[in-house]
Design a protein that fits this description.
The protein has ten helices and nine strands. With 266 residues, the chain is an alpha/beta fold. It starts with 14 loop residues before the first helix and ends with a helix.
């Protein structure tokens, strides 16, 4: 029945298929498209969520390769209408990648069931997630406004969220293209954030999730504008908090929240 999900419906690729895809991607980014990684040291011990901008179908391969971790330890949240409704796509992708279905319409029940699948995957040894809060690939390459549903996963899964920015992937395989072109791609990992709600704060859950989404969007936009590591040689790094109380940045009103987010240290 349309719109219904079962925890068993997620793709869990066989380890051999995942290992083959991993070997192919590492060769691809070594010999065909140069991959540069900054901030890999920020990746925490599993489980965690990689939260990134999205411009290309190669983004997940880029993030998994950049992490240096086995591909089998990652599951991507993928649009159900794209990855699950087409038997051709399902047949190919399920052989090589772990994918959790998510409904683009962001209905409450479907989001909750996707959340349950994510929790199940994170309980696996070294389970991690890849989340694209824009909801779809950007056709222009510019970061789009983040979807509010991303806050549900960031706040309620209770694991560190690592903001990441991918640059150059659109030049290799843009939306609507099918053959990758040679080029360079850069991944920047930011400091992990653990969203912690205050049990004594009675702010609405929706407000907490909205604050989390705004903060993640802010951090990823900052990564997109960050100078390269070579330009920062000799400069001291600023500290970033590893744990943030979402209630501390939730607003009494919309404008207040934006001001508080902008004042947070980063």
């Amino acid at each position: 029945m349309a719109g219904e999900f079962k925890a068993e419906s997620m793709f869990l690729a066989p380890r051999t298929g995942s290992a083959m895809f991993q070997a192919f991607c590492r060769m691809f980014f070594l010999s065909y498209c140069r991959l540069r990684v900054e901030g890999r040291e920020h990746l925490p011990v599993s489980p965690f969520i990689l939260c990134s901008n999205h411009t290309s179908h190669i983004d997940s391969a880029v993030l998994m390769t950049a992490s240096g971790l086995p591909f089998s330890t990652f599951a991507m949240l993928g649009a159900r209408d794209y990855f699950f409704d087409s038997w051709r796509v399902r047949l190919i992708v399920s052989r090589f990648m772990n994918v959790v279905p998510i409904d683009r319409q962001a209905q409450h029940n479907s989001l909750r069931q996707s959340l349950a699948m994510c929790e199940k995957f994170l309980r696996r040894p070294q389970g991690n997630l890849i989340l694209y809060p824009e909801g779809t690939r950007s056709g222009s390459g510019e970061i789009q406004t983040f979807k509010k549903g991303a806050g549900l996963f960031a706040v309620e899964l209770g694991v560190p969220v690592v903001p990441a920015h991918i640059g150059g992937a659109r030049n290799i395989l843009a939306k609507g293209q099918f053959l990758p072109r040679p080029g360079a791609v850069t991944v920047r990992f930011g400091e992990p954030i653990r969203f912690a709600s205050n049990p004594f704060d009675h702010l609405p859950a929706r407000g907490l999730r909205k604050a989390a989404v705004e903060l993640l969007e802010q951090r990823i936009r900052e990564l997109s504008q960050k100078p390269s590591a070579r330009e920062l040689v000799g400069l001291p790094e600023e500290e970033q908090p590893t744990t943030i109380s979402v209630s501390a940045v939730a607003p009494e009103g919309g404008n207040t929240k934006s001001r508080r987010l902008n004042r947070m240290p980063h």
